[in-house]
Automatic annotation (TrEMBL):
Record localization: Nucleus
Presence of the UniProt keyword Nucleus in the record: yes
Keyword Glycosyltransferase: no
Molecular-function annotations in GO: DNA binding; DNA-binding transcription factor activity, RNA polymerase II-specific
InterPro entries, sorted: HD, HD_metazoa, Homeobox_CS, Homeodomain-like_sf, TLX1/2/3
DNA-binding region(s), residue ranges: 22-81
Organism: Helobdella robusta
Protein name (record): Homeobox domain-containing protein
Disordered: region residues: 1-29
Pfam family for this entry, one: Homeodomain
Primary location: nucleus
Homeobox domain ranges (all copies): 20-80
Gene3D superfamilies per the UniProt record, alphabetical: Homeodomain-like
Amino acid sequence: MPQAGQQPTSSHQFSLKSPQKRKKPRTSFSRLQVVELEKRFHRQKYLGSAERSNLAKILKMTDHQVKTWFQNRRTKWRLLLIAFQ
């Protein structure tokens, strides 16, 4: 408990965790990649792991990048559906 005149300390000041990792820079996709991702998204909103791996290989992306792109695109799609209702 802080004494009179002292500010309470925040718990993160004395954390024993390793220093915070730097934020990854934003990924930029080429126009070709975006066009192909959008085409696939319009045909299929969800990809299985094998489909995702295959698409990532074709587009020279990582599985994680494709997975994240589809997650973000589905979110955008849902928001657009709500906005137009």
